[in-house]
Amino acid sequence: MTDVERLFRTYHDPLVRYLTRRLGDRDWAEEVAQETFVRALRQKDLQNERAWLFAVATNLVRDEARKAIRRRRHLELLREEAKAEAMVEPPPTDLERAQERALARKAIDALSERDREALLMREEGLDYNEIAEALQLSLASVGTTLSRARRRLVDAYEEQRRLSDGRRTG
Amino acid sequence: MNHLDEGTIHAWLDGAVDATRARDFEAHVATCPACATAVAEARGLIAGASRILNALDDVPAGVTPKLAPRAPPPQRQWRAASWVTGIAAALMLAVGVTTWNRDAVTNETHPVAEPMRNEGGAASAPATSAATGATGAAAFTAPSAAAGAASANQARTEADRKSSRRADAPSRANELPAQKAAAAPAPTEAEPTAIAKEAPLVPSAPSPPAARRRTLADSSARLQLSEVVVTSATEARAVQPLEVIPGCYRLMSIGSSDGRPIAGAAASAPPTAGGGGRLRRTTSAPTPQAVAADFSATVPHPLVRLDTVLRTPGYIVRSAVTDSLVGYWSPWRLDSARATILADGIFVLAARDRVSCPER
User: Fold this and answer.
1) Which end of chain A is more exposed for a tag (fewer CB within 10 A), N or C?
2) Which of residues 111-130 of A touch B (CB under 8 A)?
3) Cβ–Cβ below 8 Å for B64 and A87
4) CA-CA distance, B111 to B113, in Å (whole number)?
């Protein structure tokens, strides 16, 4: 197995999953992942591969996300797609899952960028050293960041659930 | 020793403190109820957060819902493994019990707690302690009880939640009726016998709203059983793409500025004859010149073979000429493949564009 292969096989899926959860868009996530790996190949020697990959991916996302122009184009794209393809009523099971996903999405968007990223990285198994390195945090502050992020996420989710239930039962 | 602050507790639970400190913490927590509560709450938060993050998965490409259910690539199915479902259910229960104790426990929730006793000794601990509004120590034992409700998470989103949600009920009670609903379906889940024992208790429950809700959820869960099966059948369809997709394909580089398929529109805009188009959003792609500079104008592996060998993270793609591994593919929309060619890009290949493989 070449080095490229090893890197790819080991980290591609977790990276895509992290990015998908971060962005809410699988295609975009795959693109960023692809770009990350391209950059990795240019590195001669990677210490702490996982931390490095997640750091690069995170920075790519932050750079892109700051561009308002991309957001506008993204919306245009969605409009085009909606027109181009028929929307079929999804079966009930998918609907429930979609609703839960929507609640989770709103909840995670309520977090600050750093809290969100730290939590998502932790979810992919990065240890405190890796998270500190990837996000340029002090090791001591990782625990506090995660505890705050988790509490906020759960609170936000419960809040969204309450709102959504209230709407449904009127 | 001082009381533990939240950040330290999380670091400890995440395994980020050294063994000596960890031992000190353990010793302290054993004798300090306040810290024990804090630790239990932290466990609940960690579990709850994890569950919420997992709910983010399975985001459809392009965001708008597409055709009839697309069969997800097997290795990406986060719901596939029953142990994942079990843990997810355990986490959900841990959150439910923890936050349960925060709200006042009403009479309505007591009958719901009863059936859990049948699941074994471990279950009685959270049931009793929750019923008496005890500390969050319940969250510790909750995971073992929830193991018996392993199907809960799968059935929960599939069970009719309209029946288990009432404006007048404590929101936490929603979790448990859905678990009772798990009594009927999910034959493939772990410990079905433990769950089956719950079922007889349901009809004999007293009449407060919680019990009525539970009965409704139980009956609708039986209805949902067929839906569970349908889901499995949908997954089984993922096998079909393997019959039509594997084979040889030509990869095209980005040439004309208008020929790029947009993500999601690729299926409706048929790739030009002769090969798959590279998947690229017009919004994110830099200028065509820059892209061409990044990836060579002629693709290094213009002819590839999509194999049926499954190796994480997908099915294997080989160069049709040298036979070396060049990337991975996964089914996309039943009649196409999304191929990631290492260091090269993502291509969407439609089955109809398959060409014959070169003689070797």
Assistant:
1) C
2) 119-120, 122-123, 127-128
3) yes
4) 5
**Rounded CA separation B128/B124 (Å):** 6
Distance CA A139, CA A144 (A): 10
Cβ neighbourhood burial of B16 (10 Å; 0-12, 13-18, 19+): buried
Tokens representing A50 are: 């996982």
Interchain CB distance below 8 Å, A101 and B58: yes
Which position has the token pair 């693709």?
B299
Each residue of B201-218: pLDDT tens digit? 434 434 444 444 444 444
Across-strand partners of B329?
Answer: B315, B339
- End-to-end, the C-alpha distance of chain B in Å comes to 73
Chain A residue numbers with beta carbons less than 8 Å from the beta carbon of B52 are 104, 107-108, 153-154, 157
Judge contact between B108 and B56, C-beta under 8 A.
no
Are B178 and B159 in contact by the 8 Å Cβ rule? The answer is yes
The span from the CA of A117 to the CA of A134, in Å, is: 10
A39 C-beta neighbours (distance < 10 Å), count: 14
Per DSSP bridges, beta strands B303-311 and B325-332 are unpaired
- What's the longest Cα–Cα distance across chain A? 60
Pairing of strands B277-278, B303-311: unpaired
Q: How far apart are CA B161 and CA A89, in angstroms?
A: 19
Q: Residue B355: what pLDDT?
A: 87
Residue with tokens 């020697």: A45
What is the percent of chain B where pLDDT is above 90? 15
